[in-house]
Amino acid sequence: MPGKTPDKEPVENGGYRGGNAKTTKGKKAAKDGEDEKMTVVVPPSKKQSSAPPPNDADGDVAMDVDEADDGEAKVDPVVQTVNDIKSNFALLDRAVALFDARFSLRALRSISSIRKRLTPDILARAISETYSVSSLSASAAKQVLAAIGRSDVSLGRQSSSEMDVDSEPTKTSGKNGSAKKESKEIIPEVDVFFGILTQVLLHDTKQWQQGAEYSQALIERIQSLNRRTLDSLSAKVYFYYSLFAEQLAPLPPSPQSPVVSIRPTLLAALRTAVLRKDVDTQASVIVLLLRNYLLTSHISQADLLVSHTQFPDNAANNQVARYLYYLGRVRAVQLRYTEAHEHLVAATRKAPSSACALGFSQTATKLLLVVELLMGDIPDRATFRAPNMEVALHPYFLLVQAVRVGNLEDFESIISEHAETFRRDSTYTLILRLRQNVIKTGIRMMSLSYSRISLRDICIRLHLGSEESAEYIVAKAIRDGVIEATLDREKGFMKSKEVGDVYATREPGEAFHERIRACLALHDESVKAMRFPMNQHRLELKNAQEAREREREMAKEIQEGDLDEDDLGGDFEGM
Q1: Dihedral through CA 522, CA 524, CA 528, CA 533, nearest 10?
Q2: Own/partner pairs for 497-500, CB < 8 Å, 24+ apart?
Q3: How many helices (H) and strands (E) does the chain have?
């Protein structure tokens, strides 16, 4: 022990060095004191783990262990993405076996996370590992490979993980296992799922023409298959089919735009979906047709579509929000502001709260603000203070300020300054209608501030051209009920009436009734959205009937003397 170096004694003996430090004397006391400090630094857990090599003092073993952990934690992102794609095949199989669309919807929801890592090489690898050359769906796989520019990739390639795991068992078990594995045919739902991934990839890489051609071929294949388990997937196919058509030249609102040429296809799909009670495709195609008509400003055709079709009640929440938004735009253009306001409020409430749907929430809120201004109301200031809305709604905040004050000059300057933003939001034509509202607001402010004011002062304050225009506008405001006043044309002034108590009118009761109606409608929609087990009431009736039969039999046996209460355990209480 004394001959060994102090570097190795703590590793071999653990806490033994502390005892030697107290018994050593002379010149070794200082050295042993340094050894005591070293025993505190070295943790005892590493000493007891295993016998260290001679060079353990340099910490090589700990570094080797860390490097091994890092090597095990690394996962190839390509392999992970391919496995994520393949993991959805089990969901599609269950959707076909159980005839339940919820599993197909779960597979579709995974696309949002896959598309961030999706590349042509990854998609080609997943296809080559899924399909075999002798598969019946090999033609569909080759069509996908041709669409993404990977026609040279061969089918039937085995993944690296399967080669590592299955190489030994195939030698011992023979060819039966591999033959059984190859004999499993790919269901058409998997083909369409790969087709949707191809559409997503072509859309993200902005290959509009290639995407439109492939989408047309994919729709024809879905129509030829005629499977009800493809309903949820076909709705997504039609969605991307319409998106590709919107990006092809000439762009809307040109009447020669390809969005006009796809309308017969969408109308045929809607007719077929209604006959087959395909809720997903029906809701998706109705929304796409409304968007199609609005892109080319065909408001009358959009109104006819809404009047001749019935949007499904049990449609997905996202489709309901889109439908309400487009319907609100149609009603706003038709000057039916009250209906437009109801639809847009419902659309903003049903909008998803996730960050991916922030653009829809902002667009719907912008149109809602304009409609509220057209109705003569001033939007709540808290709407503009939301963290995710403050920047996007800044031009509309300035617009609301100008309308609230009734300053026509500021209103026109704001329109000229932010005209490009309003055109991009498709609200420019509606905002131009606000000029009369600004004038009415200004007149209302003056009627509250002055008991009597001349038409000349109104003309100067509102920057009107002449007193005749001011007289016409004041008369129209009085007739519409905007202000409570009388107009003296001979003397040229407006005299305001005394404002009464608003609580003496029907307005508070109507507002309270409107809130109650909104709460009841929300309750009804929540009940409709709940899922109930199929035929559960029949099972409960059957169990109750069986229980009554058993009670009758037991009562009969008691009456005949075959049983008594002691035999029943004392729990029988009779009929």
Answers
A1: 120
A2: 499/448
A3: 31, 3
Q: What is the pLDDT of residues 327-367, one digit of tens each?
A: 999 999 998 998 999 999 999 988 888 888 899 999 999 99
Helix extents (H) in 314-433: 317-333, 337-350, 358-374, 394-405, 408-417, 419-424, 428-432
Q: Which residues of 506-533 are buried (b: 16+ CB within 10 A; e: fewer)?
A: eeeeeeeeeeeeeeeeeeeeeeeeeeee
- Considering the domain boundaries, does residue 255 fall inside one? no
Q: Coil, strand or helix: which one is 497? A: coil
| Domain limits for position 60 | 9-73
Domain contains 170: no
Tokens in use for 495? 């005299």
3-state secondary structure of 401: helix
Pairwise CA distance, residues 508 & 380, whole Å:
18
Chosen domain end from 73, 93, 113? 73
- Which residues of the chain have a pLDDT value below 70? 1-73, 157-184, 498-500, 532-539, 562-575
- In the chain, how many domains are there? 4
Whether residues 126 and 60 share a domain: the answer is no
Whether the upstream peptide bond of residue 253 has omega within 30° of 0, thus cis, is: yes
| String of DSSP letters for 25-58 | -TTHHHHHHHHHHHHHHS-HHHHHHSPPPTTGGG
